[in-house]
Amino acid sequence: MFLIRKPCQIHSNQLCAPDNTMEKEGICKFKQLFSYLGCFLRKFMFSILSVGPIPDHIAFIMDGNRRFAKKRHLLEGDGHKAGYESLISILNYCYQLGVKYITVYAFSIENFKRQPEEVQLLMDLMVEKIEDLLRNGSIVDKYGMRLYFVGNLGLLSSTVRAAAEKAMQATAHNSRAVLLICVAYTSSDEMVHAVNQAIRKNEFDSVEEEHIEKVPMIKINDIKRHMYMSVAPDPDIVIRSSGETRLSNFLLWQTAYSPLYSPTALWPEISIWHLIWVVLDFQRNYAYLQKKRKQP
Amino acid sequence: MVATDSIRKSSSRMAQTPSFALSILWLLIHLVISIFFIVLGIVDTVEDYLISSGFLKRYDVINMGKLRYLAIVVDSEDAMQINKVLKLLQWLTDIGVKHVCLYDSEGVLKKSKEIILEKLSYAKLYEEGDEKSGLDSKTMILEFTSQFDGKEALARAANLLFKRHLKLSLGENQEEKIFTEAQMTEALKAVGSGGPEPDLLLVYGPARCHLGFPAWRLRYTEIVHMGSLDSMKYGPLLKAIYKFTLVRQNYGK
Fold first, then answer.
1. Contact A248 B219 (CB under 8 A)
2. N or C end of chain B: smaller count of CB under 10 Å?
3. Quick one: which pathway (chain A) (predicted)?
4. Non-local CB neighbours of A109 within 8 Å, separated by 6+ positions
5. Looking at residues B231-236, what average pLDDT do you find?
């Protein structure tokens, strides 16, 4: 599916002010032209990519915000803010390309071990950005995006949990695109939670000890049904920025046939070219991965 | 009539032309990428020669202390080439790897377990507790896993916990029992799928995915793609292990 809805446009923040000097106006016009060409080139590249299979679901491990802040001599919080801008940029590219589901690893249960100030900063940033996303005209509106917050939400403070639940309710009617934000998440916690739920839901009348062996067994699909991530298909691709080659307790159950890509760019430096390269490589291996997924 | 038909034909040809042109461009891009990977393969071959002949000195000394446990994932079709698997294990012994877990989803390697152990006289089968015991310099511990030890094992462990839950609900203590990660780890050991977590996982296949390797044991494992088993080389194997020894993890902190 290729979303070629709108032609490239000059955005209002790029309009040249009437009282600009000749030189400033020249620079402004050049920037507008550059932006228009960039948009055209992007749409052209996406139409070429769309000749082959486009992944339905991409998962991102957004690694490298702190290293980015250190590299650019910024405050740590600014690294995370730059990371958020990068996320919005990538979401735009992915949804324009026709990817329907995007999952991001925003905050692991292990991240609670960080300095309390940093954890608080991240939680505050999350609440602020959730409010931004729910405003009119945001990316959520633009793509008809449904938001899911995936993880052990009970570990979050009441403020963050309330903001997450409000966002999920406000976007529940959307269905064109889906964004799953993994927060207070680890794959091992997800698997244990799913097993606990499967045990609880396995219906039986009061059983006597000698009949325990005859009670119906829990199957793989029972566990799968209770995973936090059961609202989306398994990812087609996992991308981890910063060149690290591990999954760090992210979607371990769901990624048997999801190739892992590790571009060396830090998360705020991730660009459209990384995405294009990953999709091209995914297309090269598509037939093999489909064959593997269909095997019993 | 003729004019209308010809206009209609031209319009449909024009509508098809952009997608025909895009298809050609798509094929061209993929051709260029394939050539790129062929060139990369040639570079790998040259590097393999340089490493194997000892020209690249930095790979001579590797700190094997960091690599306590290595896993190898092989595509099940490739896994039928037992001689390749044996060669790979021989290379790993030469490098100094002591503990290897072999995985393929369909269990082809599991079925060939006896042949492999017979051919490698210094190798022995993994038993629980092996990771704690000291080994002499020549022994290699081998573990054979498949999807039976992956999602299927988690389901078996879940059933073990389920039965425990039923027994608890019969007892005097009627509190709802929520099982923890530690209890899940124990349950996995009890059903025979409780091996240690590999430090490094090497994937021999067309794509870099773990093909269903036991999820419970993959949390912080470095995953490296080695290409297909057919084109396996000693140089890239040594390089991958060397690079692993340089990695530093924060574990979320």
1. yes
2. N
3. Protein modification; protein glycosylation
4. A151, A152, A155, A184, A185, A186, A189, B252
5. 90
What's chain A's length in residues?
296
- Contact criterion met (CB below 8 Å) for B231 and B75: no
Residue A64 near residue A266, CB atoms below 8 Å = yes
DSSP E strand stretches across chain B? 70-74, 99-103, 123-125, 140-145, 200-204, 222-227
B123/A contact by beta carbon, under 8 A: no
- B251 CB neighbours in chain A (<8 A) are 110
Domains by residue range for chain A, with CATH: 61-294 (3.40.1180.10)
DSSP B195: P
Question: What 3-state DSSP class applies to B209?
Answer: coil
Q: What is the rounded distance in angstroms from the CA atom of residue A261 to the CA atom of residue A236?
A: 11
Interface contact A259-B157, CB threshold 8 A:
no
Q: Do the Cβ atoms of A188 and B219 come within 8 Å?
A: yes
What is the side-by-side strand order in the sheet with B70-74? Answer: B123-125, B140-145, B99-103, B70-74, B200-204, B222-227
Q: Are A178 and A102 in contact (CB under 8 A)?
A: yes
Closest to A151 (Cα-Cα) out of A214, A231, A95:
A231
Residues 126-185 of A with CB under 8 A from B: none
If you compute the radius of gyration of chain B from its CA atoms, what whole number of angstroms results? 25
Tell me whether residue A192 is exposed, middle or buried, using C-beta atoms within 10 angstroms of its C-beta: 0 to 12, 13 to 18, 19 or more.
buried
CA angle A43, A41, A265 (to 5 degrees): 95
Segment A163-177 shows an average pLDDT of 94
Residue A3 pLDDT > 50: no
Number of H helices, E strands in chain A: 9, 6
Instruction: Order across the sheet with A177-185: list the strands.
Output: A145-150, A177-185, A101-108, A57-61, A237-240, A260-261
pLDDT in tens, A97-148: 999 999 999 999 999 998 898 899 899 999 999 999 998 888 998 899 999 9
Torsion over CA: A255, A258, A260, A265 (sign): negative
Beta bridge partners of A177: A145
Q: Give the residue on A whose Cα is nearest the Cα of B28.
A: A48
Write down the residue that tokens 């073990």 correspond to.
B160
What are B89-147's pLDDT values in tens digits? 999 998 889 899 999 999 999 999 999 988 888 888 887 666 555 556 678 899 999 99
- In three-state secondary structure terms, B222 is strand
